[in-house]
Amino acid sequence: MENRRRVTEEDLLITEAMIAKSYGALKQSVIRAPSRAFHSVSQTAREHPYATAASAVVAGVVVYKIINKMTSHAPAHKTPEKEQVTQQKDTCRPDHMHDLLLVILPLVTPYIASYVQKYLEKVQSATRD
User: Fold this and answer.
1) DSSP letter for each residue of 64-121
2) Count of CB atoms situated within 10 Å of the CB of 28
3) pLDDT one digit per residue (tens) for the chain, 129 residues
4) What is the spatial distance between Cα 45 and Cα 54, in angstroms, rounded to a whole number?
5) What is the SS3 assignment for 66?
6) Whole-structure pTM value
7) Residue 6 region by backbone torsions, left for phi larger than 0, else alpha for psi between -120 and 50, else beta
8) Among residues 41, 56, 67, 92, which one has the fewest Cβ atoms lying within 10 Å of its Cβ?
């Protein structure tokens, strides 16, 4: 067995101070983590507002489709009579997705067109230089 020096009270105090300093840094890191994440998201939103809006719209449409698929109740066994009744119900049921797109598209289209125009101008100016 190797000879080790004895642990002194000074060693304990130094170790305690190092642990306290490390814990303080860890606590600050945990506190700052959400603001760092939000900062990167907000920075991206500031740099690409139209892409952010378009992706939010697409995400909303996708979530709507998923929820719609999950909540639809299809019968397990389809007989010709049940299938005909189901088809009649489907044709009578209002299409909320269509209504949603009719409301969103006129609002979003100018932003998307402007974003695409600026992007193409940036690409063309980069190719000219």
Assistant:
1) HHHHHHHH----SS--HHHHHHHHHHHHHS--HHHHHHHHHHHHHHHHHHHHHHHHHH
2) 10
3) 577 888 899 999 999 999 999 988 888 888 877 777 777 767 777 788 877 788 888 888 888 887 877 777 655 555 666 666 555 655 556 677 777 777 788 888 888 888 888 888 887 887 776
4) 11
5) helix
6) 0.32
7) beta
8) 92
